[in-house]
Specification:
single chain, mainly alpha, Four Helix Bundle (Hemerythrin (Met), subunit A), 69% helix, globular
Length: 192
Amino acid sequence: MLLLTLSWLLYGAIHSCMASNYFKIFAEKILGKYFPFYRIIYNVLAFTLLIPVFAVQFSTKKEVFWQVSDYQSIIGKAIAICGVIIISKALQGYDLREFSGLDFNKSQEKNEFKSDGLLKYMRHPIYFGILIFVWGMFVSEASTRSLTSAVAVTIYLFIGIYFEEKKLIEVFGEKYEKYQQDVPMLIPLLKF
């Protein structure tokens, strides 16, 4: 479990570093006129760096906490599928060319405040969907490796939300602060 934990920690550190404004400024100096490609480079690296984490995940011995019934496995997988549906629905609210980095004509910074679609009900629907997915996988497997991953992803997402919200306040100011007051962070209908 130590190697899996370290894998998630390293992934989270690299991902957060690359998403920071400080690293973007550094990357802009390095990339120069190629900086419009930064977003796609970031996304490709973020995806590629998940491969070794998943390799560690699935090569780690599966030690179960309890024997999972077929019923529990189905429920866990249904929860995970709900997470994927939420992520898919949340992505529909974004310009996917810009989000993926394939729109090279747009600025690399978030330039449009969005609060429609799932963003009316929660500030971070993609993260919410990811949390639903990883905890659903834990329910369906009930293993030390799935728990390690679910806890690591949860911690990382809360740290990521903290820094992302600071960045969004810098970009959108009072408009985002008002949005924070009106819309829950993750759980619709609750102030969380």
